Every structure is written in C-alpha cells, then in structure tokens.
Amino acid sequence: ENPNRYYDSNKIKTTKYTILTFLPKNIYEQFHRFANIYFVVIVLLNFVPVVNAFQPEVSVIPVCVIMAITAIKDAWEDFRRYKLDKEINHMGCYIYSR
C-alpha cells in the first residue's frame, strides 16, 4: 500500500506571503523590529510644533525608503522560495512499497 494514502498531496510550501497577504504581513513584521518603531516615533514627534527639528514631511522620507527597500527584499526572497518550492514539487519521487 501507499504510505502517503492518508495525505491529499506531498507538496511543500516555505513561502510566508501570498499576493493578498504580502502588504499587511510585511508591515506587521517590520513593526516588530524595535528600530522601525523608534524611527516612526521620532517622525511622529517631529510633527509636534514644539519639538520639531525640521520640516515634518522631510522626516517621513527616510523611514518610508528604508521600509520600502526592506519590503522589496522580502518580496524577492519570498518569490525565490516560491520558485524553488514549485521546482521541488514537480520532481518525480519514489513510492515505498513492501
């Protein structure tokens, strides 16, 4: 008998995201880093007129650039994982039989 008879498929999936969940999951993961939270708080403080050091709009740019670069990097890594999963899932395999 087939040892995998109780399973629908033997596919692996190592990707974190789908197209629909990429943006919310990635933002959630990025705000779990203390440095990102710290810099967003600094940006928000810069919008307070008493403590602002320079134009508040300018302080948003570096944080957005860093988060966008990180999101692009995460998307690229996840796409590479997807391609490798697809390659492995389409390989032939041997079925054990007694």
From TrEMBL:
GO terms for biological process: phospholipid translocation. It holds the Pfam family PhoLip_ATPase_N. The chain crosses the membrane at residues 35-54, 60-76. It comes from the Eukaryota. One of its GO terms (molecular function) is ATPase-coupled intramembrane lipid transporter activity. InterPro entries: ATPase_P-typ_TM_dom_sf, P-type_ATPase_N. This is Putative phospholipid-transporting ATPase VA. It comes from Chaetura pelagica (Chimney swift).
